Amino acid sequence: MDFEKQIRQSLKTEAEKASGTEGMKEKVMNNIFLKKGRTRMKKRLLAGIMATAILIPTAGFAGYSYLSDRIFGSQDNFISQGGSGAEYAHIEEKLTQAKRALNEKEYAELEQLLKEIARYHAKMAEPGGKLNVDRLTKEEKQRYNQLEKEMEPYAAKITVKEDNPVDILTIEESQKLLSFPVHHPSYVPEGYTLGSAVGVMDANAKKSKPVINMYYEHGDAGIGIFQQEIRAGEQVGMPDEYERIQKYKLESYEVTFGQGGSDKEDGLSLVVPAQGGKSAYRIYVAGKLPQAELEKIALSIVHQ
């Protein structure tokens, strides 16, 4: 199975069905698996590595819950906050799915996050079940947003575990399987914040290695960052969709820059050679940014 297909499957979540849900964020990432003779790059929706993608019903009260009574106390409590019996049953179904997909420790951690989120939702709930985030204090809003990010790895695992032959890993889990150091960039342009960070790998391939996928966002703009181990003798290239390809040296690193043309994203691939017992790896950065900014982001990962 080629990696582009893995990515497509791993990112196909229930959020795609709920694309009209109020507040749903769609993150466009350029997902790639670049080998000699197979250079393709297509935009994919990363609409679902967020808690909202899998845990919020698609209509009515947006209550997070798993094995529902442990979160809300009872169905009556849920309904008193604007929910319905049907939505409560839907949540119970999702919790059962989560129970199958996660191990005992992961589920317990997720349950604690959900309980905290449910308390915020109870405070935010208005008559009719609409959630008003302005009912939260500034500090509560910050924690609420942080909770969504903390839930990303769990939501991703739940999504793909059911029927997709790929595994979504945390960065920490991915690092244990990789022979190069994984880092977040120490530099991104002002205003960009981390939206998601996961590792994706083929669950059926015995020698599969996770590819690190990070996404930084600023309004509707986004930066996709990928870190991929390069095996001995493996050739890497650039997508043929780019209008112009430029190869050059940046410091001591081999760099390939792809220019996407008007209103299209550019991409930059930087190869770090094997050294000190660590494998070679490639950093790929894509976004609607100047070439110098893409270089600066890539180098900020290497210089750590």
From TrEMBL:
Could you list the residue ranges forming a coiled coil in this record? Answer: 88-123
| Positions of region (Disordered) | 1-21
This protein's species is: Aneurinibacillus aneurinilyticus ATCC 12856
The record's InterPro entries line, in alphabetical order, gives: DUF3600, DUF4367, ECF_sigma_eff
Name this protein carries in UniProt: DUF4367 domain-containing protein
Query: Where in the numbering of this chain does the DUF3600 domain appear?
Result: 65-178
What stretches pass through the bilayer?
45-67
Question: Domain DUF4367: where?
Answer: 184-301
Q: Keyword Coiled coil on this protein?
A: yes
> Could you tell me which Pfam families the record lists for this protein?
DUF3600, DUF4367
Q: Which UniProt keywords apply?
A: Coiled coil, Membrane, Transmembrane, Transmembrane helix
